[in-house]
Amino acid sequence: MIIMKKRILFFPQNNEHILNMNPVLEEMQKAGFTCDYLDTRAVYKQKLEFNTKYPLIKLPFPNLKNSFYHLSSIQRINYIRSVRKIIKSLAKEYDLFVFGNDGAIQRLLNYYAKKEDKPSVMILDGLVGSNKYSYRDVLLFSKEKVKDVKIKAVESLKHFISKFFSGSSISPYMPSTIGSSNLNAIYTIGDFSKSYLEGHKHKATEVFSYGLPRMREHFLNKDIFFIPKKPKSICFITSAYKWHNLEHFHNSQIQDILLIEECIDEMFPDDDQVKLYVKLHPRECLEDYVLFKNSKRIQLVLREPLVETFENYNVLFSNISTCIVEGVNKGITVHSVLINFPYWKFKNGFLSDSSIQKVFTKKGLSSTIKKGLVKQKVSYNTVEDNVFLSEMTINSVEHISKSIIGLANY
User: Fold this and answer.
1) What is the per-residue pLDDT for 1?
2) Does residue 332 sit within a domain?
């Protein structure tokens, strides 16, 4: 009697997903499973760095000019319908599915997998739960109450729809809240993300705070300080707001970058060596920052890994990006600039943590830049009781793999 090896499909959407999945895939192979990566570059237009030693499955997905997430609602629905046969065949071919997030196409695959009584899990990269606010907050703090009530109502409706239709055939075509699919298990970076998901997860889903495999190096690197590779440097790390259809936040982000440039010009009018580097998010387009193209002070940075960003610059800024928390985990301060952003929308999220340095005024911005530039070396911070990064991170690969093996052999 021939016993067939169980087959596991890894479904990454961006490169961080691959970094988390690689060591887990290796463990699953050691345990005797056949593992494949699904090549999704034709769908999401992300630069995915697959290692050639891992099997890669390329399917005849309809090629898109731009990312799936840049399609209109009707175009997305049509695209999902066009790939149903491909996705259905995957559900029959494999025995377990590992996702990096639970977007529309992932939910379609999960739907067919569950019809075949096959398990699915998600290694959820990064932090979730940045904005937590109530209608009361809108009434007390908003300067555009009607607009923000509508935004809050849409978010509440999206949350309800996501939970109500979770696991149904309609779910892939509907708006969703991350982590609300009827997955068997979700593995998070830490307790903060776990507690957020517990509030809206599917009743059948278990959530584990095992940490992320790609974050293990934070526990191995014990340097006390570093010398920035780019002297007299300030870096603003952007977020892909347009990717998420948050045009108003993108505009606020641009205003804060211009404000930082203004502060530098006022403090160092004759020093052209003081530069503002704007590191673009991997899912952003250069065209969205064309206004900085000819600036003598601003330099745009593309395709720089975040781990290198942390080592390159004297002073780091962002708005509400999860890179701020990645900085906390690494012992690096990434200041949250909240001058043009409505802090009241995020005051109950991860920004409320005292370990995160926040800037609310132009004066505070100038002071932060001045203090940061006089340092020739930057000391790493030590943060105790870090709710963002699980203490189990160093053994995350073993814990996640053991959980998946248990589901696969059930």
Assistant:
1) 37
2) yes
